[in-house]
Amino acid sequence: MNQIPIIIPHFKSEEKLSKCLEAIKLQSYLNVEVFVRDNNEDNILFTAAINEGLKKFSFDESIKHILILNQDCYLQADTLNSLIETFK
């Protein structure tokens, strides 16, 4: 089971981010690493925050997929398994 990094740019809504992270914890696919870029202080904007996460994970040859989420995206429990099956 390959690791799936999940990149989440975060700006000002702790409640939405908490709900998003809780949904990730409930995934049936367990090998994930979450990268949250907190934009509250410097607000580098969405794409720059995503680029930081991509820079962290893109050069690791063992990583086959990277998921980018908004902080208000709440995955269903089998979402990651479904996505992996789709890419096979």
Describe the model.
The chain is an alpha/beta fold and 88 residues long. The protein has one domain. 38% of the residues lie in helices and 18% in strands. The protein is built from three helices and three strands. The protein has helices at 14-25, 46-57, 79-87, and strands at residues 4-10, 32-38, 67-68. Strands 2-1-3 form a three-stranded parallel β-sheet, sandwiched between helices. Strand 1 (4-10), helix 1 and strand 2 (32-38) form a beta-alpha-beta unit. The longest helix is centred in the N-terminal third of the chain and has 12 residues, at 14-25. The mean pLDDT is 94.
Tell me the domain tally: 1
Number of strands: 3
What's the overall geometry? globular
Rg estimate, integer Å: 13 Å
Largest sheet: 3 strands, parallel
* Uncertain spans: none
SS class: alpha/beta
Number of helices: 3
What's the pLDDT, averaged over the residues?
Answer: 94
Q: Termini, distance in Å?
A: 13 Å
The amount of helix comes to 25-40%
Percentage of β-strand residues? 15-25%
**Elements, N to C (H/E):** EHEHEH
Order of strands across the biggest sheet? 2-1-3
Quick summary:
This protein has 88 residues and is α/β, with parallel strands linked by helices.
